[in-house]
Amino acid sequence: MDRSVAKALEAFGAHEAAQFARNRPADPGAQLFADQVEAYCCFLSAMSQWRTVSFGMGGFAYQGIDYPSLEAVFRLRRVPPEDVPDLFEQIQVMEGAAVEYLNDRH
Q1: Residues 35/36/42/46 CA torsion (nearest 10 deg)
Q2: Contact between residue 51 and residue 57 where contact means Cβ atoms under 8 Å apart
Q3: Which of 33, 83, 89, 98 has the smallest set of CB atoms within 10 Å of its CB?
Q4: CA dihedral 1, 80, 68, 89 (to 10 degrees)
Q5: H helices of the chain, where?
């Protein structure tokens, strides 16, 4: 991934996300624009907060991000309340793509 993305993530205090970005190979098809950085950082900050549904011995499926956890991410990252609706919409787009990808993997 572009080193400038990792630097931007570091600047926002998303150290784990920055480390992830540095270790991930560049994908020429993936781009992150400046107005998407905060949503991306929030998404990565909540990436361990997925809701899943179990199928017993048949496995499980990802349902999506636990939204109360996402509210905590917004609060801890000191996201201005007026920015939350736009960030939430951006995160839902990422979440939808991630759910599809994660559920197709297994």
Answers
A1: 170
A2: no
A3: 33
A4: -60
A5: 3-11, 15-23, 37-45, 67-76, 84-105
In the chain, how many domains are there?
1
Q: What is the model's pLDDT at position 95? A: 93
Q: What pLDDT, in 10s, does the model give residues 39-48?
A: 999 999 998 8
| Contacts for 86 with CB less than 8 Å, ≥ 6 apart | 39
Place of tokens 């950082």: 41
Please give the Cα distance from 83 to 101 (Å, whole number).
27
Q: Which domain holds residue 97?
A: 3-105
Residues 6+ apart with CB under 8 A from 65: 43, 46, 49, 50, 51, 91, 95
> Does the pLDDT of residue 1 top 70, yes or no?
no
Predicted confidence at residue 29, as pLDDT, reads 64
The answer to whether residues 43 and 94 touch, using CB atoms and an 8 Å cutoff, is yes
